[in-house]
């Protein structure tokens, strides 16, 4: 089996529930970011929202992207750690039903969970308990799968933990050894302050493609204008995909900036929008599309995500459907 993309990231079961801004304020929750917490805090929040429907979905930033590539018709593999519990079994079942190769053995401990609070403006606020996912290690990275891939895709969240950072760097090392291209997503603006040196070393070195949003790019470069941010990063990195929310994205390739328009939709939930954009771009460039067309596919995929609850495309797409979408 050969793969378009081998992903490395946290394995997190998402519990998505709607609330209003007043609930966030009353419970001291910072809006629009990811905050690490414990299961007791998660349960207290869910208890306070008793009566609200909870939507369950296997997630994690890189996992969302890997699932998106599979739904677009790509071949993918994933390295993420789950527990031997109900959430862990559900997570692995969901991934394998999509023909995603996930060979990391489950272990004793709680599968990671993320309470995703969705406000009426479609913004998502995440309270994450990493659980057993934080123990992903170098031993879980499979060289034979990486060697058969076009790209390795690494989640920035991994750099916040010692074991997971080691796993990420192992995947990057094996990709370089086997001539496999490397894509990195920053994942969250708060990580730039924590992991700036690591990110810059990778951006200036082995990373072939960097995914980031406007806030992450500003934190990384110190520039205010997104075009300036994109050019500053592109001086060090061969390819850059910088998302601008509803305003689309900028792709940098061989010194040229490709503006990509956003797709106008009524947004319900922005969970996984950037992840699905990355899925469209990675599918595109591993299936012969030019960089701008790949960016357009990313925009269409992200639009599908924000117009519905959860970080999943509504169905699997055929090659002809993707071609018609881009035409």
CATH class: Alpha Beta
Overall, the morphology is globular
Indicate the CATH topology. Answer: UDP-N-acetylmuramoyl-L-alanine:D-glutamate ligase
The CATH superfamily is identified as Ribokinase
Number of domains: 1
Query: Architecture, CATH level 2?
Result: 3-Layer(aba) Sandwich
- Span between termini: 31 Å
Order of helices and strands: EEHEHEHEHEEHEHEHEHHEEEHHH
Helix and strand content put the structural class at alpha/beta
Total of helices: 12
Low-confidence stretches: none
Write a brief structural summary.
The protein has 327 residues and is an alpha/beta fold. It is 39% helix and 21% strand. The chain is globular.
Mind explaining what this structure looks like?
The protein has 327 residues and is an alpha/beta fold. The chain has a single domain, classed as Ribokinase (UDP-N-acetylmuramoyl-L-alanine:D-glutamate ligase, 3-Layer(aba) Sandwich), CATH 3.40.1190.20. It is built from twelve helices and 13 strands. It has helices at residues 21-26, 39-48, 61-71, 86-97, 143-147, 162-177, 190-203, 214-221, 226-234, 273-285, 291-306, 319-326, and strands at residues 3-8, 12-18, 34-36, 55-59, 76-79, 112-118, 124-129, 149-155, 181-185, 209-213, 239-243, 249-253, 256-260. An eight-stranded mixed β-sheet has the order 5-1-8-9-10-11-12-13, with helices on both faces. Strands 3-7-6-2-4 form a five-stranded mixed β-sheet. Helix 7 links the parallel strand 9 and strand 10 (209-213). Helix 8 (214-221) packs across helix 9 (226-234) and helix 10 runs antiparallel to helix 11. The longest helix is centred in the middle third of the chain and has 16 residues, at 162-177. The chain is globular. The protein starts with a strand and ends with a helix. The model has no long low-confidence stretch (mean pLDDT 92).
């Amino acid at each position: 089996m050969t793969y378009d993309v081998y992903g490395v990231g946290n394995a997190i079961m998402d519990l998505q529930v709607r609330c209003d801004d007043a609930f966030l304020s009353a419970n001291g929750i910072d809006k629009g970011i990811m905050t690490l917490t414990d299961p007791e805090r998660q349960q207290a929040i869910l208890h306070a929202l008793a009566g609200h429907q909870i939507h369950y979905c296997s997630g994690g930033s890189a996992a969302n992207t890997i699932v998106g590539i599979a739904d677009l018709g790509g071949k993918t593999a994933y390295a993420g750690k789950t527990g031997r519990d109900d959430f862990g079994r559900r997570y692995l079942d969901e991934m394998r039903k999509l023909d995603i190769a996930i060979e990391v053995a489950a272990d004793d401990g709680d599968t990671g969970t993320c309470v995703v609070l969705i406000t009426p403006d479609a913004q998502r606020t995440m309270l994450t308990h990493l659980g057993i996912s934080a123990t992903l290690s170098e031993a879980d990275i499979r060289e034979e799968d990486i060697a058969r891939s076009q790209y390795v895709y690494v989640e920035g969240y991994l750099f916040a933990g010692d074991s997971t950072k080691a796993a990420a760097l192992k995947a990057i090392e094996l990709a370089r050894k086997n001539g496999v291209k490397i894509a990195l997503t920053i994942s969250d603006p708060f990580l730039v302050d924590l992991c700036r040196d690591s990110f810059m070393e990778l951006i200036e070195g082995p990373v072939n493609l960097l995914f980031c949003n406007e806030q992450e790019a500003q934190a990384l470069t110190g520039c205010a204008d997104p075009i300036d941010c994109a050019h500053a990063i592109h001086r060090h990195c061969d390819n850059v995909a910088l998302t601008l929310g509803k305003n689309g994205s900028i792709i940098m390739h061989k010194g040229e900036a490709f503006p990509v328009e956003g797709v106008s939709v009524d947004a319900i939930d922005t969970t996984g929008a950037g992840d699905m954009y990355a899925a469209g771009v990675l599918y595109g460039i591993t299936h012969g599309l030019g960089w701008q067309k790949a960016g357009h596919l990313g925009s269409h995929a992200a639009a599908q995500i924000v117009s519905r609850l959860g970080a999943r495309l509504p169905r699997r797409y055929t090659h002809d459907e993707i071609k018609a979408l881009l035409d």
